[in-house]
Automatic annotation (TrEMBL):
<keyword id="KW-0479">Metal-binding</keyword>
<dbReference type="InterPro" id="IPR024084">
    <property type="entry name" value="IsoPropMal-DH-like_dom"/>
</dbReference>
<dbReference type="GO" id="GO:0000287">
    <property type="term" value="F:magnesium ion binding"/>
</dbReference>
<dbReference type="InterPro" id="IPR050501">
    <property type="entry name" value="ICDH/IPMDH"/>
</dbReference>
<dbReference type="InterPro" id="IPR019818">
    <property type="entry name" value="IsoCit/isopropylmalate_DH_CS"/>
</dbReference>
<dbReference type="Pfam" id="PF00180">
    <property type="entry name" value="Iso_dh"/>
</dbReference>
<keyword id="KW-0464">Manganese</keyword>
<keyword id="KW-0560">Oxidoreductase</keyword>
<dbReference type="GO" id="GO:0051287">
    <property type="term" value="F:NAD binding"/>
</dbReference>
<keyword id="KW-0520">NAD</keyword>
<feature type="domain" description="Isopropylmalate dehydrogenase-like">
    <location>
        <begin position="5"/>
        <end position="348"/>
    </location>
</feature>
<protein>
    <submittedName>
        <fullName>Tartrate dehydrogenase/decarboxylase/D-malate dehydrogenase</fullName>
    </submittedName>
</protein>
<dbReference type="GO" id="GO:0016616">
    <property type="term" value="F:oxidoreductase activity, acting on the CH-OH group of donors, NAD or NADP as acceptor"/>
</dbReference>
């Protein structure tokens, strides 16, 4: 219970539309929970901002974000600005400099949501993706451009410290939430330097610090198949940056799609603010139409509430989302309905009120 400072970066396209609904939820919670209040710092960092200022964020962005308890982010992406700029000048600096080394993604079956799986109920696991190193490094380069000998090298950087801390985060989450098993994704049979270090560090941390938890380890190719064949067998999945990225979208795909999937970029030590965002992008194809599904954004706000310690309130927001889907009446286009973004927001607010 308390007063929380939250930075709001709605970004581009549908980011603005879905964020408006998440903000309605936060305002509603202030009414429903007299002891909770939010100081929202709304920041217009976006592609428009870039076109005007020549940068995605002001120079003092760290000073603006540091005092915040958390950051709620919408989506970024615009045809007028290169992806390298939007990603490497906004999302990446925040993730890296604020040591948000966990990318957390819950994967959960939701009522009445179409899935490519025949048996789609009862899926409930969490992915811990390493978010600060690994395959997504800038190190490398291209040689002999245009010649027949042209080549490119991209280095993967994995450190003992980096692997140990993401493993610890997964283990601690499993312990806290009463899970019994952690599943590690690897490819140490083919990627023999970085992935053997991964296996060794994961194995040691799990054995020494979480002896009560079972550790299983699968090659990423096999694990991708198991995600489809027996997704209910997973509880906590631990993966490198690239493997975790792919598994996260696969996880999102088997339970119903982008409009429903939240994520957190988390600094568990809380020495820097963490950032919560929907998995989807700015969706230029539907931007401005008012038909985007706000659930992923609202669920991301719930993950934020959980992170700042408001676990019970976060649970109520997630219950409200589930109650709307359970009722199967108000549905946006992506999940087979006609409702607008705002109507979905209103329906979730109603279900939230019903819990008080
Ligand atoms: P970006 O470059 O910003 O990542 P993108 O086009 O690569 O954008 P998304 O924005 O994630 O990827 O969109 C992928 C597809 O999913 C699009 O067809 C989009 O309309 C749809 N989509 C994404 N998010 C939502 C949502 N919240 N509600 C409805 N449809 C969505
Ligand atoms: Mg995208």
């Amino acid at each position: 219970m308390g007063s929380y400072k939250i930075a709001i970066i709605e970004g581009d396209g549908i980011g603005k539309e879905v964020m408006a609904q998440a903000l309605r939820i936060l305002r509603e919670l202030e009414q429903l929970e007299p002891e909770i209040s939010f100081q929202l710092e709304q920041l217009d960092w976006s592609s428009d901002y870039y076109l005007e200022h020549g940068r995605m964020m002001p120079e003092n962005w760290r000073d603006i974000l540091m005092p915040q308890d958390a950051i709620l982010f919408g989506a970024i992406g615009d045809a007028r600005v290169k992806d390298e700029v939007t990603i490497w000048e906004l999302i990446m600096p925040i993730r890296k400099e604020f040591r948000q080394y966990i990318n957390y993604r819950p994967v959960q079956s939701l009522p009445n949501i179409a899935s490519p799986l025949e048996d789609k109920t009862g899926i409930n696991f969490s992915i811990f993706r390493e978010n600060a190193e690994g395959e997504y490094s800038n190190s490398g380069g291209r040689m002999f451009k245009g010649e027949s000998s042209e080549m490119a090298i991209q280095n993967t950087i994995m450190t003992r410290k980096g692997i140990e801390r993401i493993t610890r985060a997964a283990g601690e989450y499993a312990r806290k939430h009463g899970k019994c098993k952690v599943t590690s994704a690897t490819k140490s049979n083919a990627i023999i330097h970085t992935n053997t270090l991964w296996d060794e560090c994961v194995e040691r941390v799990m054995r020494e610090e979480f002896p009560e938890l079972e550790l299983e380890s699968y090659y990423i190719d096999a694990l991708a198949a198991y995600f489809v064949q027996r997704p209910k067998s997973f509880e906590v999945v631990l993966a490198s940056n690239l493997f975790g990225d792919i598994l996260s979208d696969l996880g999102s795909g088997i339970v119903g799609g982008l409009g429903l999937s939240p994520s957190g970029n988390i600094n568990p030590e809380k020495d820097y603010p963490s950032m919560f965002e929907p998995v989807h992008g700015s969706a230029p194809d539907i931007a401005g139409l008012g038909i985007a599904n706000p659930i992923a954004q609202i669920w991301s706000a719930a993950l934020l509430l959980e992170h700042i310690g408001e676990t019970e309130v976060a649970g109520k927001v997630i219950n409200a989302i589930q109650a709307v889907l359970e009722e199967n009446r108000v549905l946006t286009k992506d999940i087979g309905g006609q409702a607008t973004t705002e109507e979905m927001g209103t329906a979730i607010i109603e279900k939230l009120n019903a819990q008080y």
